[in-house]
Write a structure and sequence with these properties.
The structure holds 2 protein chains of 2 kinds. By secondary structure, chain A is an all-beta fold. Helix content of chain A is 0%, strand content 58%. In chain B, 35% of the residues are buried. By secondary structure, chain B is mainly beta. Classes of the chains: A mainly beta, B mainly beta. Chain A binds chain B through residues 31-32, 34, 41-46, 49, 87, 89, 91, 94-102, and chain B through 4, 42-45, 56, 58, 90, 92, 99-108.
Chain lengths: 109, 114
C-alpha cells in the first residue's frame, strides 16, 4: 500500500538553528513528491516538486532533496516566519496525491 | 488574479442535516479537487473533477458527493451529517490534466457538526 510518513510530528527550533524534516514513503510507481506549507487557518501552499532520486530544489531558506525512499526538507537559519506545518505528498501511479500528516515547525525568536 | 474561493468559511450543523459547500477555482483552471482535513487523519482526498466529470474518488461513503459546473465552479454535498464529519474541507484547483502536483488551495470551509 502506498504510504507517506513524516517525522517528527513537531519540531521546535531557535531562530537561526538549522534542521531537517523527513518524509519517508513507499509507493509502487512514484509520479512525483511534493512539499507544501500550511499556515493556521489557511490552505496548503505549494513549495516544491521532486521527480527523481538525487533531485534538489531550493527556495530561500528551504531546500528539498529526494532519495528512493525518503525526502528531506532542510531549513537553514530559520526565522519565526518559517513557523508553519509542512506537508509532504506523493503522486501515485493513478496520479492521486497521498499526503503525510505533516510536521509542525515552531521557530522561537 | 483571484485565488480559489470557498464559501461559506464557517458553518455549524446538527447531526442528520445536510450541507453544501462551494468552490470557485482560479480563472482558467479546469480541475477541482476536494479534501477533508482533520487533526487525526490529516488531508484525505475526497474527489477530483475535470471538465464536469469526476476523474478520481477517494474512500469516502456515498454521503459525500460533488459536482462541477460548466464554468468549473464546484460544489460538494454531505448528507446525513455525523459528528465525525466535523473538519476543514479544502478545495484545490489546477490548470488541467497536468500532473505537476501544484495545487492551489482555498482557505477552506470549517464545518462543525453538533
Amino acid at each position: 500500500e502506498d504510504q507517506v510518513t513524516q517525522s517528527p510530528e513537531a519540531l521546535r527550533l531557535q531562530e537561526g538553528e538549522s534542521s531537517s524534516l523527513n518524509c519517508s514513503y513507499t509507493v509502487s510507481g512514484l509520479r512525483g513528491l511534493f512539499w507544501y506549507r500550511q499556515d493556521p487557518g489557511k490552505g496548503p501552499e505549494f513549495l516544491f516538486t521532486l521527480y527523481s532520486a538525487g533531485e534538489e530544489k531550493e527556495k530561500e531558506r528551504l531546500k528539498a532533496t529526494l532519495t528512493k525512499k525518503e525526502s528531506f526538507l532542510h531549513i537553514t537559519a530559520p526565522k519565526p516566519e518559517d513557523s508553519a506545518t509542512y506537508l509532504c505528498a506523493l503522486s501515485d501511479s493513478n496520479y492521486q496525491l497521498i499526503w503525510g500528516a505533516g510536521t509542525k515547525l515552531i521557530i522561537k525568536p | 488574479k483571484a485565488g480559489v474561493t470557498q464559501t461559506p468559511r464557517y458553518l455549524i450543523k446538527t447531526r442528520g442535516q445536510q450541507v453544501t459547500l462551494s468552490c470557485s477555482p482560479i480563472s482558467g483552471h479546469r480541475s477541482v479537487s476536494w479534501y477533508q482535513q482533520t487533526p487525526g487523519q490529516g488531508l484525505q482526498f475526497l474527489f477530483e473533477y475535470f471538465s464536469e466529470t469526476q476523474r478520481n474518488k477517494g474512500n469516502f461513503p456515498g454521503r459525500f458527493s460533488g459536482r462541477q459546473f460548466s464554468n468549473s465552479r464546484s460544489e460538494m454535498n454531505v448528507s446525513t451529517l455525523e459528528l465525525g464529519d466535523s473538519a476543514l474541507y479544502l478545495c484545490a484547483s489546477r490548470p488541467g490534466g497536468s500532473d505537476t502536483g501544484e495545487l492551489f488551495f482555498g482557505e477552506g470551509s470549517r464545518l462543525t457538526v453538533l
